[in-house]
Write a structure and sequence with these properties.
Elements lengths: L1 E6 L3 E10 L3 E4 H9 L4 H4 L6 H8 L8 E3 L2 E12 L2 H4 L6 E16 L16 E2 L5 E3 L8 E9 L1
Parallel strand pairs: 3-8
Antiparallel strand pairs: 1-2, 2-5, 3-4, 5-6, 6-9, 7-8
Length: 155
């Protein structure tokens, strides 16, 4: 979903939100922490923990404990552009010039599996595609937030 708002004829504001859903992934951090290494409070206090996690642990299964809904929504891009007046651009022989400041990957608006098994999801978008499930992630880094500026000149 995106929107563009133009103000005073020469200022343009833009925002893009991205939603993805309908797929799962294995969060290896959850599987390793809870069942493989058994070093989480949740797994060591099973009666008060997630019953699904306790059942997998009792069967000695660790990979499935990280299976999560991989749905998320992010604010992808926010930008502001200013088109310089023609009186200014004509001084250096240009017909048009636009200065833009943009920020990408600002923050997640929603995560489907946030807090499942008592574990914070770093970034559901990070991971490698596998043949078992859609994606596997362990010790992944989230996408960097970036801020860019550009000056576009037409002659």
């Amino acid at each position: 979903m995106s929107t563009t708002l133009t103000l005073w004829g020469n200022v343009r504001l833009y925002a893009l939100a991205d939603f993805r859903g309908g797929h799962t992934y294995v969060n290896g951090d959850v599987a390793a922490s809870h069942v493989f290494f058994t070093n989480s409070r949740c797994i060591n206090e099973r009666p008060i923990c997630d019953p699904e996690l306790a059942a997998y642990a009792s069967m000695g299964q660790w990979m499935q404990t990280g299976t999560m809904d991989n749905g998320f929504a992010k604010l992808r891009t926010v930008s502001a552009s200013y088109t310089l007046p023609s009186s200014m651009t004509s001084r250096f022989g240009a017909s048009r010039a636009t200065l833009t400041l943009a920020a990408q990957n600002l923050f997640r608006l929603w995560t489907a599996s946030e807090g499942k098994y008592g574990h914070k999801v770093i970034d559901p978008e990070v991971g490698k595609h596998t043949t078992v499930l859609d994606t596997y992630n362990q010790e992944g880094w989230p996408h960097f937030r970036t801020i860019t500026t550009s000056l576009r000149i037409s002659f």
